[in-house]
Structures are given as C-alpha cells and as structure tokens.
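As agreed, record passed on underneath.
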Amino acid sequence: MTYTYEKTLGKNNGNTDLTGDKLIVEYVLSSVSNEIKVVEMWRVGEDIFGEVKKQEHQMTWMSHESRASLIVELEEDMTDRACKTGEYSFDNYCEENPDFNNAINGVS
C-alpha cells in the first residue's frame, strides 16, 4: 500500500524558483529494508513557459539536505498514520480519497 504526502516548497528547498510550489510524494514502507521508499514525485507549479502544471520530480534532483529532510518528513507522516500521533485522521483520508470514501459508504 502506498501513501501520498504533500508539502509546499520554500526557500530552504535549495531553489527559490520553486518557492510556493507543491510537492506531491507517493511513498511506501519497504518490507525488505523496513525503510521509506519514494515511488513517484510530482511538483505542481510553473514550468519554464509560465504554465502551471503537474510535473515529474526526482529525488536525485534534490540536494542531499533536502532529500534527508524529506525522508524525515515521510517517516513522521508514516508514524502519524500508523500510530495516529499527528495530523493523519481517517476522516481526512476519506476527504482526500473520494473513491475510497464512496466505496466504504456504498456509493457507486
């Protein structure tokens, strides 16, 4: 099962051109290494022509510090989901995933 995590990029993300863009990360907990693995990432923001759209993003394009920071955030997100220690809630999950919400409520 994969999870999604969203964050807003800021000046501390290494590139001020991306400030305010949204980073969407799909990740999973590896059953082999017991570590977070990033499946896919997208950046929502302006491309070089000024058009706002969802674009592929890669961990290798990030600085070492930004990668390490993102992994820490993903680990905290996973802990919040598993232990219900933070912002994650089932209600929020249902709001973020309308297909799932409809399925559990018998809506087709």
About this structure: The chain has a mean pLDDT of 83. The chain has one domain: 3-104. Residues 64 and 70 are 10 Å apart (CA to CA). The chain has three helices and four strands.
